[in-house]
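Long-time lurker, first post. I've been practising inverse folding by hand and with some scripts of my own, and I keep getting stuck on stretches where the structure tokens seem ambiguous. Below is the full token string for one chain I'm working on. Before anyone asks, I'm not after the true native sequence, just a reasonable design that respects the backbone. If someone could post their per-position residues I'd love to compare against what I wrote down in my notebook.
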């Protein structure tokens, strides 16, 4: 297989990818206890928010009630 001479074997990654990679490295370096503490805090915050109720059931027939005309 022939490769073009102008192709780089190790191209420079984009700034967005570099930022993502640096954030992932910081997360991986953090102690597990600290990560679990942050997750527990986020879960407690979500628990304070009211939950949405179930969606109303939609009749499959064209009528609001199941009766026929």
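-- Answer (accepted) --
I ran through it position by position. Result:
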């Amino acid at each position: 297989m022939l490769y073009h001479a102008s192709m780089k074997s190790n191209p420079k990654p984009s700034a967005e990818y570099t930022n993502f990679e640096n954030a992932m490295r910081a997360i991986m370096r953090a102690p597990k206890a600290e990560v679990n503490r942050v997750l527990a805090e986020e879960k407690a915050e979500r628990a304070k928010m009211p939950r949405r109720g179930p969606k109303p059931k939609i009749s499959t027939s064209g009528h609001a009630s199941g009766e026929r005309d």
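A couple of notes from the structure itself: The two ends are 73 Å apart (CA to CA). The mean pLDDT is 80. Happy to go over any region you disagree with.
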